[in-house]
Amino acid sequence: MTQPRWLDERESRAWRGYTQMHRRLDRVLGQRLTRDSGLSAADYEVLVPLSEAPSEQLRARDLARSLDWEKSRLSHHLTRMQGRGLVERRECATDARGAFIALTPVGRRAIEAAAPQHVEAVRDNFVDLLTAEEIEALAQVAERVLARLEQVDAVCFAAEADEQAVASPQSSSQ
Fold first, then answer.
1. What DSSP letter does each residue of 94-118 carry, written as one string?
2. What is the pTM of this model?
3. Distance (Å, rounded) from C-alpha 109 to C-alpha 88?
C-alpha cells in the first residue's frame, strides 16, 4: 500500500478555506433567499434551469442530471414544489415512461421576483469581493476540476453498470 500524499500547509489552507467558504456561502445565500423570496435554495436550483429552458420545461431526467440530484431527491422535491404551484408535471408524447417538468406562471413570477435579490446577494458576498483576474482564475479552476469530475463520474457509472450486469444476468430460455 502506498503512503498518502498529505496536504502541505498551503494546500491544506486552500482546501479548508474552500470547503468552509462553500458551506458558509451556501448557508448565507440560502437564508437570504428564503428571507427575501420564500424560496428555498433547492427551489431556486430547480426554477433556474426551467426558466432558461425552451418552452420553460425539461425532461425530468435532464433536470436531475443538470442539478446533479438523485432521481428520488428530485421526485420528492418536485412533489413539494408542485403542491405550491411552482411547477407541474406533463406527459411526454413520445415516451410514456418519461415526463416533462414545466414552470407554471406562479413559478415564473417566483423566480422573477427572487432572481434580482439573489444576484445582488451573490455579488455582495462573493463576486464583488474578487478582482476580474481572480474571477477568471476561479472560472478556470472550476472548469478544470469539473472536467476531472466528469471523467471520474464516467468511470464510476461504467463500473456500476458492470456490477449491475453481473448481479442480474439475462435469463436464458429453456
1. T-TT-EEEEE-HHHHHHHHHHHHHH
2. 0.82
3. 15
